[in-house]
UniProtKB/TrEMBL annotation:
It comes from Seinonella peptonophila. This is Spore germination protein D. Coiled coil: none annotated. PROSITE patterns: PROKAR_LIPOPROTEIN. Residues 160-196 are annotated as: Disordered.
Length: 196
């Protein structure tokens, strides 16, 4: 990044020097103020040659290498940003949006699955999980959830969607056919027993 900045400054100073060479006397060069130099520099950068020079500079491998953030730099930057009290509120705000939560969840899905597998093998975690599941308060909450109108609506929606699937229709049809065949045999036996 420093090299990039130094190249840009070098480029700007070269333009400044070229523009100041056209002046006739030393007294006139002293009169040139910052605004004038800025205008000249911007004018030069707006020309086709200026744009080409900048593009050439930016497309160079050395420039690109300076733009790439290395893993350790990124890790350090994120660590500082996450622990800084000023940016912490911003992170909470950013990560609380639905879109960001989905992206972050997808990004860390593999790590989350690995963590869960590791935790499920951990005896201490298993014990804690069983304690939570055995807790009467937890059971009450689950029971309340199962009795809630929202849960019933969601369950009905899932069941209706399931009934529309071809595999469920096929299994249901097979079950009906087997049930009719079995009930037909039972009726035949019942009639034979009554006749005797």
């Amino acid at each position: 990044m420093k090299k990039l900045l130094s190249k840009f400054l070098l480029f700007s100073s070269m333009i400044l020097m070229l523009s100041s060479c056209g002046m006739t006397s030393a007294s006139e060069s002293k009169e040139t103020d910052y605004q004038k130099v800025k205008e000249i520099t911007l004018d030069v950068l707006q020309t086709e040659e200026g744009k080409k020079s900048l593009l050439k500079l930016m497309s160079g491998e050395e420039f690109k290498q300076q733009l790439i953030i290395h893993d350790h730099e990124l890790q350090k930057l994120l660590s500082q940003s996450l622990t800084d009290q000023k940016t912490k509120k911003e992170w909470v705000k950013i990560l609380s949006t639905q879109e960001m939560m989905q992206k972050f969840s997808k990004l860390t899905e593999k790590q989350q699955a690995e963590l869960l597998k590791m935790l499920m093998k951990d005896p201490e975690y298993q014990k804690s999980l069983l304690d939570v599941l055995k807790d009467p308060e937890f059971s009450k909450h689950i029971l309340q959830l199962l009795k809630s109108q929202e849960y019933r609506k969601e369950t009905m929606k899932i069941m209706q969607e399931l009934m529309k699937t071809p595999s469920f229709k096929e299994q249901s049809q097979k079950g009906k056919e087997q049930g009719q065949g079995t009930s037909g045999k039972k009726e035949g036996k019942n009639k034979q027993e009554q006749a005797s």
